[in-house]
Amino acid sequence: MSSDVAITATGHIALVEIRRPPANYFDHGLIAELVRSANSLRDEGIRAIVLCSEGKHFCAGADFAGGAMGDDRHRTAELLYREAIRLFEIDVPIIAAVQGSAVGGGLGLACAADFRVASPATRFHPNFSALGFHQGFGLSVTLPAIVGSQPAMDMLYASRRVDGRRAFEIGLADRLVAEGHERGGALELAAEIADAAPLAVRSIKMTLRQPLVERVKSVLERELAEQRRLWATADSRIGIAASLARERPVFTGE
User: What are the sequence ranges of the domains in the chain?
Assistant: First the structure.
C-alpha cells in the first residue's frame, strides 16, 4: 500500500483516504489503488466505505499543470477510465465525504460513490467546457442520474460551480453538514448502512446500480473519443492555458 491511500477500519466501516493534499489529484494508479483497497475491505467484512481526502480539497481531478497526463493524454485517460469502470462495479456501499472542492474528474469520482456528504463550503465544479473539452469519468451518465437532466446540462454546458447548499437542493449532496464535519456526517451515514444485513445491501446495490454500470461502460468510450478530438483543438489549448494562468479564456471555436 502506498502512502497515497490510507485505510482505517473500525468495526464494519472503513475510511479510505486519498493522501495527495492539497488538491488530491488522481491518476490511473491512484484509482487502481482505491479499487484494490475497496475489494480487499469487502473480503475483510467491511459493510460500508467512506471515501475521503486529506487536506483542503476532496479532489481536483487530473493534474494538467504537473505533467501527470503525460505526452499521450488519450492513452493516460484510457488507462484511467479502465480503472474507473472497476470502481463502479464495487458492491460495498461507498459514501464520499466531500470537503473543499470536487473539480472535473474529482466530481466524477464523487459521483461514482453511492452517496455524497457536503457542507455549505463544499464546491462541485464540472469545469470541462471552461477547459475546452468533453467531460469524463462517466459524468455524462452519473450527473444526470443524480440531479436530473436539466440541472446536469446547466452545470456541464456552463461549467457551473455549485456550492453545498445548492448541491443538497438538487440532490447532488445527500446530506448537508457543518463545514469541517463532512467526514463525520459520512461516517454517520455509513453506520446506518452497516447496521443493515450486508448480503442484502450488496445485492440491492448491484440490482440498482447495474444498469448505471452498463451505461457508464458505454459512455466512457464516447467521452474518451470526444476528449481525444477536442484536446487537439485551439479552444482546448486556450482553456487549459487560461486555467493554469488563472485567467478568463476567450474561445475562438477552433
Answer: 5-180
